[in-house]
Design a protein that fits this description.
This protein has 34 helices and five strands. It has 694 residues and is mainly α. Helix 4 crosses helix 6, helix 6 runs parallel beside helix 8 and helix 24 runs parallel beside helix 26. The longest helix has 20 residues. This is Smr domain-containing protein. InterPro entries: PPR_rpt, Smr_dom, TPR-like_helical_dom_sf. It comes from Rhynchospora tenuis. One of its GO terms (molecular function) is mRNA binding.
Length: 694
């Protein structure tokens, strides 16, 4: 451990050599005020009266099939704010700092915290010094979060208060059980309800059905839905919305579509919840086009999407990998006056970060802060990872510095440090990366395989082979299990390492993966036979996971060309095509013939160009016509860790061999030419002009 601790201090007493500091400090003030007791709105006053018909909360304020939204506000009774009576009531409530609403919500909180027993709950309720009305009982249970104690409170209220309609009290208790997904208790309470002689209503069934659906029990939901008619209860549009999802999950897709079509055909059933259910169903089944079609149909029928519907669709398009549609939907939502919530921002930011829409992601980040919606550490980490991907050093520093000032839950964790270290590594700022690595250790975070991978890449760019060796020492001493990606990182370092230090890197590879290390030695041995090299290459590809075969092949071809092993590079390229490691490289149609090199390394792209040129020459030798347009798609990004773009490299090489390709201004990342120009070029060129070296 001595060698490791000398360069990778595990305590604050040891410092990195040549530590530097580069940081940008920002001050961000984000205030999010949360009130335990909300005052009644002046146009929607909470009035406590004895008629339970008017005070009962219902589930019909929000669709039971949509959950991607903020909690709905508590129910209230609308009254005319211009009437004399309502003004007097508002003024009276405002003069009572310890008003009835505060006392009742406080009572609900006390019941939640009580010992979970009927005796304890009864003692609290019996000790109240003010009379509790039927409407008060409904409000207390509706504000409770402990389902067991809510049932105990229900029983006490039924014993001590005369109710005009007991079903309302049972309904809010069913809601409490639904929130906690307590299905056995729901069925037990149902039995109690029937024994008490209380007749259930449609809200009772809707609540129970949505509970079964949330508990992932579609068969139970169907059972209760079919039971409604025997009690003379007519399904509401909210019930139908929940049942669309239940039937689909139970494998009765035809029944689900039948309910959906019924909702579409009846004006009183045109409810966003039904459309939301279908969007959710199609999204979960991976049919994202159908989800979009439902959304468009919804608008065409005059149903305005609400926030939960937009959230469902945004998440659907994010999972589909369609960030452009996420952006379109979000813009439409804002233009329609729908205010996003925390969930909306989180989905959109994740989608933008993954797609590297960095301007949009950072704009939403600022918008979210301005709205007083704090980010959690996961969302911050997405932003930091995006900054690393696109090389936004300053922005990453500002975000990381802001995180340090936030409460626990948003402060940097090991992933945050990993991301900011990667930012510095990608930009070749070794001292800053070392400083953050030491800070991470001082904060008590154990290095992860991802952090160590970034440090190796950083030292590889700086050509500090001895530091790469020390990272390997640390990884092995900490007993961190390296994976194929980590070994691929070492291969990437090897192709950029000077010849005099290459042996050190190969020894590191050998310690991590003996099969890859042995292959590297065969590759660099001038006496290796072609057949032996080919067999060892097959053995290597068989030994690694599919996800790293292409990166491995990219690096190995580059190393072959670096050491002028052109024949070995061609063997690797042919094997990669044979084993479908490289696939769909050429697309030949009647009007165009495209070479697709996006995702290849510079060396692999040159080998693909060589093979493509041979194929074009063969077609001409046979006297066949070429398509009128020939092109090369390179993409327009650049490789991570400071390499120049593939497009710029290919342009340079095509210029060297007088190839008649030119950039397409309207198609970024494309190089195009004509059949006539290619024919002249091929006929006048010799194959010796295409000897490549990287």
């Amino acid at each position: 451990m001595a060698a490791t601790s000398q360069f990778f201090p595990l305590s604050s007493s040891l410092q990195w050599k040549n530590r530097g500091t580069t940081s940008v400090t920002t001050t961000t003030s984000s205030i999010n005020l949360q009130f335990k007791h909300k005052r009644p709105n002046i146009c929607s006053l909470q009035v406590f009266i004895s008629d339970p018909q008017t005070t009962a909360p219902t589930d019909e304020q929000s669709s039971p099939s949509i959950t991607a939204s903020e909690p709905a506000p508590r129910f209230s009774i609308w009254i005319n704010p211009n009437s004399k009576k309502s003004k007097e009531a508002i003024l009276a409530q405002a003069k009572l700092p310890d008003g009835r609403l505060v006392r009742l919500t406080g009572l609900a909180s006390s019941l939640d915290k009580s010992e979970p027993s009927e005796q304890a709950v009864s003692a609290i309720l019996s000790a109240q010094t003010f009379p509790i009305s039927e409407a008060d009982a409904v409000l207390v249970i509706d504000n409770m979060t402990c389902p067991g104690n809510a049932v105990f409170a229900l029983r006490w209220f039924l014993r001590n208060i005369q109710f005009n309609k007991k079903a309302i009290l049972y309904n809010v208790t069913f809601k409490a059980l639904r929130k906690a997904k307590k299905w056995p208790q729901v069925e037990s309470l149902w039995d109690e309800m029937l024994k008490s002689g209380t007749k259930p209503d449609s809200i009772t069934f809707t609540t129970i059905i949505s509970c079964a659906r949330q508990c992932d029990m579609p068969d139970k939901a169907i059972e209760w839905f079919e039971k409604m008619l025997s009690f003379g209860c007519k399904p509401s549009r909210f019930t139908s919305s929940a049942m669309i999802t239940a039937y689909w999950h139970a494998g009765q897709s035809e029944k689900a579509l039948e309910l959906y079509n019924q909702a579409r055909s009846k004006k009183d059933q045109l409810f966003e919840g039904a459309f939301g259910s279908m969007i959710s169903i199609y999204s979960k089944s991976g049919n994202f086009d159908a989800a979009m079609n439902v959304f468009e149909e919804m608008k065409a029928l005059g149903v305005h999407p609400n926030l939960p519907t937009y959230n469902l669709l945004l998440n659907s398009m994010h999972k589909a990998g369609r960030p452009w549609q996420v952006k379109t939907i979000y813009t439409e939502m804002r233009n329609n006056g729908v205010v996003p919530n925390r969930y909306t921002y989180a989905v959109a930011i994740r989608a933008y970060c993954k797609a590297r829409y960095w301007r949009d992601a950072l704009a939403l980040y600022q918008e979210m802060k301005a709205a007083g919606l704090g980010l959690d550490v996961i969302l911050y980490n997405h932003l930091l990872a995006m900054c690393a991907d696109v090389g936004l050093v300053k922005e990453a520093e500002e975000i990381f510095d802001e995180m340090k000032k936030l409460p626990v839950g948003s402060r940097p964790d090991s992933w945050s440090y990993s991301a900011i270290i990667t930012v510095y590594c990608c930009s070749g700022q070794v001292l800053q990366a070392e400083q953050l690595f030491s800070e991470m250790l001082d904060a008590g975070f154990k290095p992860t395989i991802y952090v160590l991978t970034s440090m190796i890449q950083c030292y590889g760019i700086a050509k500090q082979a001895d530091d790469v060796v020390r990272v390997i020492d640390m990884l092995l001493e900490l007993q961190i299990e390296p994976d194929d990606r980590f070994c691929g990182c070492l291969l990437h370092v090897a192709k950029n390492t000077p010849s005099e230090d290459l042996g050190k890197i190969i020894n590191c590879i050998d310690r991590i993966n003996p099969i890859v290390g042995s292959f590297m030695k065969v590759l660099l041995d001038e006496n290796t036979l072609v057949q032996v090299f080919q067999e060892r290459a097959k053995e290597l590809f068989d030994s690694v996971s599919d996800v790293v075969k292409k990166p491995y092949c990219n690096c190995l071809i580059d190393i072959c060309l670096k050491f002028e092993r052109t024949e070995w590079a061609r063997v690797l390229f042919d094997l990669a095509v044979e084993f479908q490691i490289y696939y769909n490289l050429q697309e030949r149609q009647e009007k165009e013939w495209i070479l697709q090199v996006k995702g290849l390394s510079c060396g692999a792209a040159l080998m693909a160009l060589h093979a493509w040129r041979d194929d074009v020459a063969e077609v001409l030798q046979k006297g066949e016509d070429l398509p009128p347009v020939l092109g090369i798609q390179t993409g327009h990004g650049k490789h991570v860790y400071g390499e120049k773009s593939l497009a710029s490299m290919l342009k340079e090489r095509l210029l060297e061999i007088n190839a008649p390709f030119h950039e397409a201004p309207e198609k970024l990342g494309w190089l195009l030419t004509t059949d006539v120009a290619v024919k002249v070029w091929i006929e006048g060129a010799q194959k010796s002009e295409l000897m490549f070296a990287v």
